[in-house]
Amino acid sequence: METRLTSAGSRPRLLKKLNRALVMRIIREQGPKSRAELARSTGLSDPAVLKIVGGLIKDQLLQEIGEGDSTGGRKPVMLDINPDGAFAVGVDLTPEFIRAAVVRLDFSTAAEATVPIDPGEGYDSLLQHMRTLIENVINESQVDKRKIIGVGVSHPGVMREEADRILLASNLSSLENMPLVEDLQRHFQMPVVLEVDARASALAEMWLGEARGIHNFLSVDIDVGLGSGLVLNGNIYRGVNGLAGELGHMVIDPDGHPCACGKKGCLETLVAFPAIIREAMRNPGPILKKYCRENPPPVDIDCILEAVEHGDASAVRSLRGSAQALGMALGNLLNFIDVSTIFINSKLAAYKELYLQEIHRTLSRYFLLTNEMPIKVLPSSLGRKGEILGMAVLVMRPLFQAEPESAMAAA
Hints:
Blueprint: H1 12-30, E1 33-34, H2 35-42, H3 46-58, E2 62-67, E3 77-81, E4 87-93, E5 97-104, E6 109-116, H4 123-141, E7 148-155, E8 158-159, E9 166-168, H5 180-188, E10 192-196, H6 197-208, E11 217-222, E12 226-232, E13 235-237, H7 268-271, H8 273-282, H9 286-293, H10 301-309, H11 313-337, E14 341-345, H12 352-366, E15 376-379, H13 386-396
């Protein structure tokens, strides 16, 4: 349902901003519109729409794209998002690499680059890697730097409530409590925002992926670590202390394998890539030995997956074990959070029969309403770009997202 936002004398600037965002959101979600269609969709008067659209075209956020079909009389001029009207830089910070991309206003990618890192590097070194990568990808994109409205950085850590510092990052400890936002803002002279990587993935799935229209879901990231982004009533849920979604650090076996967080037997130690590699190499079959010998050390997940594709029993068993551990945890979790859909954001999601279906089979044994309310387990449609696109959404969201609770009600 569209929200009607009309002018009121005491807060005209706020309402102007909200009305502009409303027009942008309608076009982004529904496609090109004429001015008359926008007036009908928003409930705003024709003169108000003309003024808003004129301002958005002047600011290069909207563009006229030609004539639409006539319903009688003159053909209407259609309006659409101008992809080059604004840009964001999305950054995905992981324990193995940093990836950055310049993202257009239509959320297509103008340029992308990746640099490997050593997780043991100090803060200054990681900061320099990030600065250089961002500078390089901006230069490669050849966009007007004045149109870049901000930088968004996803990370595999825990943030404090103010979302300006990383409190805990067990796989990138040199970033803990460091002034990353301040340092990047000072260097690039533009706003910088942080978000947990799995939440960034969930945000991208909600805006750009298969979760559009799904108001309650869980997005699970599986890589070197394990995290999740929880969406409730159409909003990312962060919790009081920013801990919501730390799925990987649920302790499953107190006497289990050591976790990077300092505890033992966390779910991450049974599900994430290092756990799959460890279990596969415990008693490797001949196919697995062959493919892992052909890859440079140390053994990585790709050679395990290559062996899976060629039917190696130990590799298949390790992947199935990861899916079963995750499925059991999710089945129990669903009894508490009660969502309809789970998205898996990982290269493991490509193995639908072996991995996704095993997750679903296992969680079905633990979820109370398996027969009455079937749960969907789906691969993310965004892949490894999810974090970067999610951070671009976070940066550019104010251009699209009207907040009716902040506006005065229509008379």
